[in-house]
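User: Can you model how cytidine-5'-triphosphate sits in this protein?
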Amino acid sequence: MIKSPMTVLQGKTIALGITGSIAAFKAAELASALTQAGAMVDVIMTEAAQRFISPVTLRAITHRQVATDMWEVPAKFEIEHISLAEAAKVLLIAPATANTIAKLAGGLADDLLSTTALATKAPMVIAPAMNDDMYAHPATQQNIARLKERGVLFVEPSFGRLASGKIGQGRLAKLEEIIGTLSAVLGREGELAGWKVVITAGGTREPLDPVRYLGNRSSGKMGYALVEAARDRGARVILISASDRPAPAGVAVVRVETASQMQVAVAEAVMGADVLIMAAAVADYQAKEVAAQKKKKTDETQYLELKRTPDILQGARGHFVRVGFAAESEDLIANARHKLDEKELDLVIANDITEFGSGFETDTNHVTMISRDGGMEALPLLTKREVADRVLDAIMRLARLRGKKKNHGEGLE
Ligand code: CTP
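Assistant: Here's the modeled complex, given as structure tokens:
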């Protein structure tokens, strides 16, 4: 049976504060996504929030009591805001109004949400949603800056059509972004806390002229899944991306286009790194000459002169665990082993790109992991996120075997 990956949200108690924004209805979808990911969601609603969405909806979604009133006699003999504050691994406020943000910045405590916020030691994540002028107002911006100084994380509102009909910045951030930030916060205590992990993703593009390029079919999905998995285990992740996909929340991203640019970015990023995972499909060739102007068509047959790009993985050496990918269409294991030896890798992830559900552009992958010490593990068809978690397990095993134990800030030796 395919086991679903342990996401960092599994089994965690999350206090979800909902305030009186028109975006309050989106909190229902957020609560649902968190619950489905295995989190215990304790919803706290302000009075204004209840004018936009009913606590009954949230109770049905989370299968838990929804806290609304400080003066209600609690079912158990517990002071409600204190027990909520203590149970929470993280306090997420989404959507957060200008008023709630102002109250939190000033340390006011006049309802259940603000008292919980003041009483909790858990990290706080705030996703504001409001009118664009209210968001841009110096008072709001100063309040946000004050809260950031105290370590509160903000998921910035996005631009778009607001309730007023105006276009501006004030829409509640996308749910993936909010959940991504939450995962990054919860992952801080994970087994990769203190590790620096560099991951490349996507297919490089080698220009032919200002309009055209040589590319490949890599979508970047496998690399991005690795980035999210490493982040959720607490690693400091640097993503070097040749893909157009938006970067996962909580991750530093360096955008590149060509193999040469990726080589420069990798050389810089691996300084002090513990792991390098080259999941990118790096072009092996680039045009010998890149035309300065757009090439005009002619009736003659055209020939392209190509030269090799730098081999990034071959050149990236150091005390870090080096992981490569081998995308093959024949002789999978033999070809992958050859790459492992040639590039002196610690681990190679081999996949047969001709197989259905495996390789480029799919959401699943069928891989075999081969390690330097001779170990070989063939995984079943899994989602790319599941594969990512298994790859990280293997990396940690290798690091441990090599005596390269890493814990909370100690460097690999
Ligand atoms: N790689 C790299 N730099 C390159 C090419 C590939 O760092 N210029 C990395 C890839 O990110 C991947 C691994 O090396 O992790 C793939 O090895 P490679 O032997 O280059 O694979 P292919 O390009 O598929 O080579 P071949 O044509 O030999 O199959």
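A couple of observations from the model: The CA atoms of residues 19 and 300 lie 67 Å apart. The longest helix spans residues 384-401.
User: Helpful, thanks.
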